[in-house]
């Protein structure tokens, strides 16, 4: 698809208004859906499209919707996960602030598909402006009859509420989010039961990422078959927003079909490495995805290709690190984030993340030993797969991969009793956790 | 009904049962911290990880439901490693101050680490997390550094008490337990959290630094604090109770006792005990021997029977006395003396029962054995005052066992009308002070017997302490007295008394101490 979908109006301050959206074909997909699709047919269409969740795990969206038990007497809920807190990720924020109606239209269609009459947008607390824009957009949509009772004369009712988060990364984890939405502490729940069966207020609930839901109008407009042709293969189909940050000349948000080559993304679209430096490492899909060495980045950015080389597409938050980056320091920074954000329920995550921070601090300050390097990887291994929610894994995977792929640099820290990397002090980093 | 295999043993369980519970049924212990049978599942300590064939990762046995065809392994190298790793995580920041920790000896961090952990630490050079100790209110002392964040205490209030008091403050490695702002711990159930806390984080200030738990002797008893009849464990050393803990009985108190019951033993410590038999000489009560005291009682009662008739002799049983004691009193008065003037001391309950979410109830009826007294005496006749006033009674034998038995001036005056008053009691009660003969008895911790709780469950309590001086278990005093009237009495133990009771009282038919066991038997 050479035309842009999400970013087509970049720079136009009008793009967030309903008048602009309507003037450019907005809500046509909704009209079409309500007129000629039964809810189950919408699910089939989304299944056909091959759309996979853009929140991180890449779970097939249509399949997830089909898990909602329609014989359950409780109300069904759709919850949009707009908590976007994964370091390196800033795609949902764009949609919320610049194309809110794309999300709202997507949510109405998706709610219709799962027969929900009440949907929530759980938005990261810090997104104050985004929350305001969404409220305004929802009011516009209500006024135009796209929300409320008997939408467009179809007999279908729906309302959408914005709920601002309390300010914790863990509230982006879907069950932590549900707890928080219920007014409780954002502690992830044990699964099973899965939210599709027992979710918000013990009722069937579908949780989808902002970008996932914002794809739905496009799928309904052009058809699932058409959408599935985009990207490298039907299992990794569609269009995708890519976030590039770090040591590149042109950091920012990019839109391509699924399967953009990572090397091309960095060197062509993001303008290559900052100041002509050498590349050292790339975190491809948000801070929790295993790091890649420069020789590994000639890879298609899609779920299966990245999984095949031992990492993940995640939230498509690509973080580029050049030769002035100390990998111990970078990991130290990441692990402080995870230790700070661990909800603290599970022993391995609560204790292990902090232990890793202590070891990394020691290594970076020249007080570490060679055994500490192995201990670090071992602790990460002892967290992996042993926790309630994937935050434990999210904290462990970077540690394992950093030590594995940049082992020499870790060992040098221990051997030289200091950080051996010439850091570029011209880039100011404020240390929020210090 | 799912059938699964755990460590090669097959078992069929009720649907909804967890792998951990199923394993327990098979006698296989899966170590656990956050799981408690009476609380909702947290699944957070990760100590109970097991291997399930076909599953990609280890699973928590506490939160994984047993399923048909499931094959579980609880002792593979992967499971052993996972346990070691969780223990390592729990211990890196633990102060390891067992030598000064009250929980040492009954601590699951100690026990599991010995069984499943490793001896050496890989947590080198780092400073441990240090946080100040807190008072949570009431008797609850919280040693923050020892807390393993299992949240049992938090869930206890939510699931059992029914109102939330404790919560986890802060996040991640900074998490700790706190009381909700604006709330105080005064639920009458608070002491229980010191029992369910698997480590030395929650301590009972009443017990702190008093004893090492492995020095304590344990006696199975029943709380006499109200008609609930909670099963308790009296923990003693050098003939002193150090603490009362709950004893599990799913039919009665499940895992809990209330704080009234927990600290009840202190109430007896403050009383002036009667340590030897006493006989009246004018205004004074002088020490005498058992032989003489019992002879006086027998002779005076026999004399009044002869001169005035048996009906001028009365006796007062008690809803605080055991089934055995009330039974023996009735046996003496009815069968040996031939009087039907059987009264019962039975104060009218004040206030209301206090029930919690789990159903645990503290009863307004503060007597442990009203039901038993009713089964033995029939409808309780409490008005011996009128009979004394009218002169219908000239001699009275009072079996008392209530620390709150206080006399008004008018009542004291009435009692002075009696020709003879014998009081069997363990402390210098108001009524004992007026007696002609005082027979020194014992309180529940010093004797063996049974109570019948509000629901009609007969439960046994056993002697935990030697009673002071010459005082005796009350059943023994009554047997001695009975023998004065009838030398054929053969009972030599509380158990013999129960057998006699079981033979003669319809409601108790067929009971014996052996049959009652530790958990009692429902008879009504
Ligand atoms: C620690 C953690 C944080 C997460 N944060 C987010 C988030 O901010 N936004 C999001 O959409 N998904 C997040 N996820 C993933 C969600 O749990 C969930 O998989 C996703 O919202 C499902 O939507 P999707 O199927 O459309 O991808 C997070 C997961 C974890 C474990
Ligand atoms: S893995 Fe970490 S964040 Fe997730 S539930 Fe456990 S302690 Fe909380
Ligand atoms: S105080 Fe005890 S019961 Fe409460 S969370 Fe800590 S270890 Fe668990
Ligand atoms: S409820 Fe009654 S029997 Fe149970 S511990 Fe409290 S006072 Fe004792
Ligand atoms: S006992 Fe199962 S996780 Fe704690």
Care to describe what's here?
- The complex is a heterodimer of chains A (434) and B (524).
- Chain A has 434 residues and is of the alpha/beta class.
- Helix content of chain A is 42%, strand content 12%.
- Chain A is built from 17 helices and 10 strands.
- In chain A, the strands form 3 sheets. In chain A, strands 3-2-1-4 form a 4-stranded parallel beta sheet, with helices on both faces.
- In chain A, α7 (128-143) links the parallel β2 and β3 (159-164).
- The termini of chain A are far apart.
- Chain B is α+β, with helices and mostly antiparallel strands.
- In chain B, 27% of the residues lie in helices and 20% in strands.
- Chain B has helices spanning 19-25, 77-92, 108-116, 152-161, 192-196, 259-262, 265-269, 290-308, 323-337, 370-377, 384-389, 409-416, 474-485, 494-504, 513-516, and strands at 3-6, 9-12, 49-52, 59-60, 71-73, 134-137, 140-142, 166-169, 176-179, 202-204, 217-222, 231-237, 240-246, 278-281, 284-287, 313-318, 342-345, 354-355, 361-362, 395-399, 420-425, 437-440, 449-452, 457-461, 521-522.
- In chain B, α12 (409-416) links the parallel β20 (395-399) and β21 (420-425).
- The longest helix of chain B is centred in the middle third of the chain and has 19 residues, at 290-308.
- Chain B is elongated and about 90 Å long.
- The mean pLDDT of chain B is 96.
- Chains A and B meet through α13 and α14 of A and α2 of B.
- The structure holds flavin mononucleotide, iron/sulfur cluster (3 copies) and FE2/S2 (inorganic) cluster.
- The site of flavin mononucleotide has 24 residues of chain A, from β4 and α16.
